Amino acid sequence: MFFIFSKTISTLLMPIFWLLTILIFALWTKNENKRKKAIKIFLLLLIILTNPFIINSLLLMWEIPPTPLKDVKKHDIGIVLTGITRFKTPNDRTYFDTGADRIYHALVLYQQKKISKILITGGNIDIFGEIKKSEAERLKDFLTDAGVPKNDIILEINARNTKENAKNTKEIIEKNYPKSTSILITSAFHLRRAKGCFQKAGVSVTPFSAGFYTQDLSEMGTGSLIPSEKSLYLWYVLTHEILGYFVYWGIGYL
Fold first, then answer.
1. Which long-range contacts (CB under 8 A, 24 or more apart) does 14-19 make?
2. Do both 32 and 82 map to the same domain?
3. Do 52 and 230 form a contact (C-beta atoms < 8 A)?
4. pLDDT, averaged across the chain
């Protein structure tokens, strides 16, 4: 039920949904004053929500900054959260989506001997409950293709959300690697909530940010003032994650 509820809320958090709702109201209402106000609100929101500089600045305040690789201490396990692949045929490779930096950085840390094993946590169950090949299994395929031995890859294929990632990972570590140290690798915008879930579950982790949506302000040129449809998506990412954080906090997951 929580899974279905979260997906429904996700739809309501889409900026395009907000804009369409206001626009439909402006076209529907017979009150001229309300119509004019709705159109003004629509145009103002459109300007704000499509401005790359505004959303980049807000995301910079939310994302956890990157850790210099030279400062990363050796850990036994690198924990990678899924949500970074897509289903596509032919099934002879791993198809990546946004956030693939997670597994890339896990591979880099492994190759630099900063971690000894990679634990991938996350399954695939859609809103109708259809079970497909888990993301963890697809990411394992990628790592083995990249030369990582199978016995250095640990899979957790049942988790559907961050809370379950933490709970299921704890069970694996307590059973098989009770004295190990772990580094948590996930997208910078999601790391705050992920770290909280793992700490709540009793898993001590060192956070490591990957998969950044932002640019440094010093690198943003005049193009950041030009409206962009990508900004609408980034607003969704930010509002979804902030709401998710406080929902998790409210129900005791953090």
1. 14/236, 15/45, 15/49, 15/232, 15/235, 15/236, 15/239, 16/232, 18/45, 18/49, 19/45, 19/46, 19/49
2. no
3. yes
4. 91
| Helix H or strand E segment including 132 | none
Closest CA to 102 of 195, 184, 193, 14: 184
Domain hosting 113: range is: 73-210
Q: What is the pTM of this model?
A: 0.87
Same domain for 77 and 34, yes or no, is no
Q: Rounded to whole angstroms, how far apart are CA atoms 246 and 9?
A: 13
In the chain, the number of structural domains is 2
Q: Which of 188, 172, 223, 166 is nearest to 99 (CA)?
A: 188
- What are 236's two structure tokens? 């969704």
Question: 80 and 36: one domain?
Answer: no
Mean pLDDT lowest for which of 102-116, 125-139, 205-219?
125-139
Convert the pLDDT of each residue in 171-192 to its tens digit: 999 999 999 999 999 999 999 9
Q: Is 49 exposed, middle or buried (0-12, 13-18, 19+ CB in 10 A)?
A: buried
